[in-house]
Amino acid sequence: MKWFKRLILVFTVLIAILAAVPLLVSLDDYRPQLEKMVSGKLKEPVSLKKLRFVGLPLPHLIVEGVEVGKAVDLKIAAVSVTPDLMSLLSSTKVIRRIDIEGLAITQRALDMMPEWTKADPNAEPAAFKLLVQTIRLTHATLQLHKTTFGPFDALIAIGSDGAPERADITARDGKFHASIEPAGEKFKVKVSAKDWRLPAGPPIHFQTLDVTGVASPTEADFRDIKASLYGGSIAGRIAVGWQQGLQLKGDFAVKDVELRDLVPLFSPQTRLSGRLTAKPVFTANAPKPDQIANVMKLETPFDVQGGVLKGVDIEEAATSRKGSGGETRFDTLSGYLAMDRGTQRLTGLKVETGSMGAEGNVTIAPDKSLAGRINAKISIVGKAGVSVPLNISGTVGSPIALPAVGAIAEAGLSAGASIGAKLGGWASGILGGDKKDSTKK
């Protein structure tokens, strides 16, 4: 048993040596050289706060406080590199794992990645081959132009040929997960989310979201999208391209989506509830992502059932001179929306309720000015049904709805001023403008 005791003694000594190495060997003397080397490669200022070697549980190198760029476009709290010690004696050096903690990367750094990772044609061939097996990210964030994605964790497995075998991205709160796997020349993408809000654009709240598709370095085709949100559902597809600018193309089927909490995300001034059913088809081609809304083309029929339009009581407006206020409950609000480069055309508008109906067409120009006509038909005691044509003008923020010349006399009403004011407020509610009494100048 003496040999066993000796083996234990040797093993204990080795552990002690490995534990003492960080205390005996300082790597900070090499830090300026490493900063200069990386800075020359990236052509950006690079700062490293500390280098240290750790012997246990496996020997590995830790780099702390990494900052890249004058504006710190890329920042890392710590990078840990764990090599396969036996491979250091062979022509292929193997890095078992690279752990990156606290990565924060900006939009500019993402844009610069192709330049930073581009091979130098004048560089001498490497004396050895380097193979990384696993990259692990912990508590990472993407700081994009107007939003932040994260914090999230990621695990990337790399094959013996140096190509990624699989990548998994998981939000720290567990509400979002995405997986990416090679599929020929492209990658298969799967996304699942629960109780999750979009990190960019309107913060739409999804109860559930499932997306499958394929992607390449220049485009993605999310061919199967299913989601439940605001008590309803959507299903459809989106194709995205970004080789030159940004291109979008897609279609959806929207069913029974409650508008009360959704509409304010797009138009804070609009107060409208009801369950929406629609089939939007859209395309866009913009030189920059932030210009996509200005070039969007979209068409869809729409139907809203059992809703409330706040800001006006149309029946009250038809029978009195009372100012704006109240609400209109409707059975159906329907029509067709066509949007092209900022101009929105609402045609075949229909509002139906127990004692009131209205129909017409309205155009919203890119500068938010309004033009169109709405015919309101209101049931009044002692009359069969009064139809009043209203000319729509003004702007989305301050719409005007006035009876056409002679309409009041033909209808046999004396409350013309009240009708103009109240239906002006009604148009404002539909189009997302301010609630104003058009009789007050």
Task: Tell me about this structure.
This protein is α+β, with helices and mostly antiparallel strands and 441 residues long. Helix content is 17%, strand content 50%. The protein is built from 7 helices and 24 strands. It has a 24-stranded mixed sheet that branches. It is elongated and about 95 Å long. The model is unreliable at 1-25, 317-325 and 415-441 (pLDDT under 50).
Offer a concise description of the structure:
This protein is α+β, with helices and mostly antiparallel strands. It has helices at 2-24, 31-42, 107-116, 263-266, 314-319, 407-411, 416-431, and strands at residues 46-54, 60-68, 74-83, 92-101, 104-106, 129-132, 134-143, 148-158, 164-171, 176-183, 186-197, 205-215, 219-229, 232-241, 246-258, 275-278, 281-286, 297-310, 327-340, 343-352, 356-364, 370-378, 386-394, 399-403.
Helicity level: 10-25%
How would you sum up the major sheet?
24 strands, mixed
Number of strands: 24
N- to C-terminal distance? 105 Å
Q: Give the structural class.
A: alpha+beta
User: Helix count?
Assistant: 7
On the 0 to 100 scale, the average pLDDT is: 77
Strand content: over 45%
Question: Low-confidence stretches at least 5 residues in length (pLDDT < 50)?
Answer: 1-25, 317-325, 415-441
Task: Categorize the overall geometry.
Answer: elongated
Radius of gyration: 32 Å
